[in-house]
């Protein structure tokens, strides 16, 4: 019995000694992690990288190049309101005539419309901006029977990019024009629309034949930029119809001769 107990004690002592040795070996040599990372597939970001990207702030959106301050739109609405009031001022009584000057209401309306249109033009120019709203307002006043208003609308049109629809509206408005100043400005503007050459020729030839004295004379003097080898014969035919000693005929003849000389046409 005593021998058996001694044997058990010896076995326990040996086991304890071996455990101490294994423990010291484990503490000095750390083992690799039991869980190994899955190899990355080509083109994939590591999971940790993706998490970092998710935490990064989204890039800020840049303002649009044509974005305008709210002040621009407030001023534009105020000017449009002023235009509407001026257009109706004779009906509302804001523009009134008097016994001394029956045309006072018309002149007051014209002044108010021109002032509002000029301010609107300056507003757009100061922001180097144009849009469909400006084109619509321009087209509305291109047909005004008030000469100064029509002239101001033409000035607005010249400030904008070529707009074929408004050019056609201008041609229609000039069909029976008597204002030489408007006609002179229109001749400059119409040079930007070569696609309308046929309609322009029809208008100019008609006015040379039957237009008002001042408007037709302005056309005769400013016709040269519109002359070409294709339409020259038509304008020469008009010249033959005109009384030779009139100012209109002399101006048209000078324009035709200058064109021929610059293009070496006999």
Automatic annotation (TrEMBL):
Residues 29-64 are annotated as: Disordered. Residues 52-63 have a biased composition (Basic and acidic residues). Residues 1-27 form the signal peptide. Keywords: Signal. This is HEAT repeat domain-containing protein. It comes from Lacimicrobium alkaliphilum.
């Amino acid at each position: 019995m005593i021998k058996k107990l001694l044997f058990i004690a010896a076995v326990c002592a040996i086991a304890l000694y071996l455990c101490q040795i294994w423990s010291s070996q484990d503490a000095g040599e750390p083992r690799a992690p039991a869980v190994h990372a899955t190899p990355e597939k080509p083109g994939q970001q590591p999971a940790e990288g993706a998490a970092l990207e998710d935490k990064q702030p989204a890039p800020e959106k840049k303002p649009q190049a044509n974005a305008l301050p709210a002040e621009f739109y407030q001023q534009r609405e105020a000017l449009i309101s002023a235009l509407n009031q001026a257009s109706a001022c004779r009906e509302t009584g804001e523009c009134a005539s008097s016994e001394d000057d029956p045309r006072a209401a018309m002149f007051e309306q014209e002044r108010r419309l021109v002032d509002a249109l000029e301010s609107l033009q300056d507003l757009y120019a100061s922001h180097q901006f144009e849009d469909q709203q400006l084109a619509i307002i321009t087209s509305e006043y291109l047909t005004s029977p008030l000469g100064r208003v029509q002239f101001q609308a033409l000035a607005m049109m010249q400030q904008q990019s070529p707009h074929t629809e408004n050019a056609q509206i201008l041609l229609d408005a000039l069909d029976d024009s008597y204002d030489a100043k408007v006609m002179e400005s229109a001749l400059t503007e119409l040079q930007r629309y070569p696609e309308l050459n046929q309609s322009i020729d029809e208008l100019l030839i008609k006015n040379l034949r039957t237009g008002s004295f001042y408007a037709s004379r302005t056309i005769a003097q400013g016709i040269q930029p519109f002359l070409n080898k294709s339409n020259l014969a038509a304008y020469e035919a008009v010249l033959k119809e005109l009384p030779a000693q009139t100012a209109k005929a002399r101006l048209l003849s000078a324009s035709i001769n200058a064109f021929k000389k610059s293009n070496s046409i006999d």
